[in-house]
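Re: export button greyed out
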Amino acid sequence: MRWLIDNFSVVVDLTKTHLYLALVPLLIGLLIAVPVGTAIRGASWLRKITLIVAGIAFTIPSLALFVTIPSVVGLQILDPLNVVIALTIYSTALLIRAVPEALDSVPADVVDSATAMGFTRLRRALTVELPLALPVLVANVRVVAVTNISLVSVGSLIGIGGLGTLFTQGYQRDYPDQILAGIIAIVVLALAFDLLLFLVGRALTPWTRQQKVRRTPLVAGQSAAPAAGEAS
Amino acid sequence: MNIFGGAWEYIVDPGNWSGSTGIGARILEHLWYSFLAVALSAVVAVPIGLIIGHLRKGDVVVVGLVNALRSLPTLGLLTFLVLLLGLGLIPPILALVILGIPPVLAGTYAGVANVDRTVVDAARAMGMTEWQVLTRVEAPNALPLMLGGLRNATLQIIATATVAAYVNLGGLGRYIFDGLALRQYDRVLVGALLVTILALVVDGLLALAVWASVPGTGRLRRNPSAEQIAERAS
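Workaround output, generated via the alternate export path:
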């Protein structure tokens, strides 16, 4: 713990790099997966192919991907862009599966109502389906964020910054305190970000909370016996 | 692309497969570490998941535990445990076990907790003891989700066992780290390609196992042939 306190500014600097390397891929992944995921939902064969490709992409071990991308793209092995590209592939693979699933969670009658009211497909997708799909989508975004924050540390094995540097340095210097500082920083970062996304998700979907509050008195008014039984 | 050709030539050369540091031995090492870690995480996580799922009360505990464990960086854990316990098989396996516990626990818990309430109540009404309800009704019905969790754990462990080579362990990660140290990037690719193929093959086999474990006859139901339809009609 003392190392963490003594070198706090170093840890803060590494945290910034770490966050950048973890979150840029998440954003790019969202920018790709939301439109593509929405578009492929209708065509079941496209959706199946996407599922298979995404499954294979996610099966590639992170270290293997980190070291393969430089040869494919033609970058230097120490370029941080390698990690960004690799994590973008993972984020997109996870999210492109999640977007159609999230859209499936939207009740069909709501979608039908929107169509009946004359919404165009685009307007229906943007103002009805995507907002109602948010709870499932946010849950998946949280998983991707935590996974990315954890995976960036593997990048230190090929010499790319972030908090993982504390692991490789601490290991080479035989200094467990430094490694512990890195573990604490990453866990705190992951949990903090997870909580932040949870709160953002809650703020964006106020109706998910109102429903629960409203339902209880309604049930109690209609049939007193089961409600009383539940309360006891 | 030349570098890929070099890596591929290395892989298909039979001379590189034999011997104690050949590709064959490295794959076996990799599978051995992975099997050990998956088995140990199952030994720890399955009973806990079964009990909490049976009681249907530990939702918050399981989710919290799984999330906290999931955010632990394995590389940090690995290097920390090696410095603490010394080199050898135990620290890396321990790190991999901690990596494998969350998916197995989540899968087992979700599998048991999601068994249809009425099915469980029916089993109780027929006079089954709690142990019988768990082992004869809940566990078989939970099998697909449990195996799904095991599949996730196996995939993550095979991927991360590569990292174990960083702390002087064998396995396919050796090619990656030796190649990086010598700046022989075709050798690095050999490791990357082999571990990717291994992960894909094992994951495919486990997907089959998950599919075969779905209880009931639903998975065997196919589109009836013309003959069957004729038979039924008559």
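Chain B touches chain A at residues 3-4, 67-68, 70-77, 79-80, 82-84, 155, 158-160, 162-163, 166-167, 173, 176-177, 179-180, 185, 188-189, 191-193, 195-196, 199-200, 203 (CB under 8 Å). The button fix ships in the next patch.
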